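Hey, quick one: can you model this chain's 3D structure?
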Amino acid sequence: MAVNTRTEYALRALLEIADSPNAAVSTQKICENQSLPKKYIERLLSNLKSAGLVISSSGSQGGYNLAVKPKDITLQKVLKAVDDDSLDPTCNSSSQRFCPSGDCTLRKFFTRLGTEMQLMLGGYTLEDIYTSWKGEQK
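Sure thing. Here's the predicted structure for all 138 residues.
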């Protein structure tokens, strides 16, 4: 199962910010540490800020901090903040992604699957991802 680059890069930025709980992290530092494109990360951080997941400060010591605790940032919230619907299998009237004919006989199934996936994605937090990430770095 793959998320799009918006979600991957947003998570990587959030991990860098979570790794520095007592100091703001600059966009430049995030990009250097994670080898990410600066313009893209600036846009994603703006999305994360609008969603209330990060806060920013300006000045020479400025940068980004988490707005809430890592345990309160779910994967579902990150997906929503960066407008990633790649893991949403639901059929709806405004999208014909899975049902090109517009009349889907599998709508009930995909709706149920979507509900279950949203519950699952809401169960994973930045704290979980951070713990796994730090474990891999050892």
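One thing worth noting: The longest helix spans residues 107-122.
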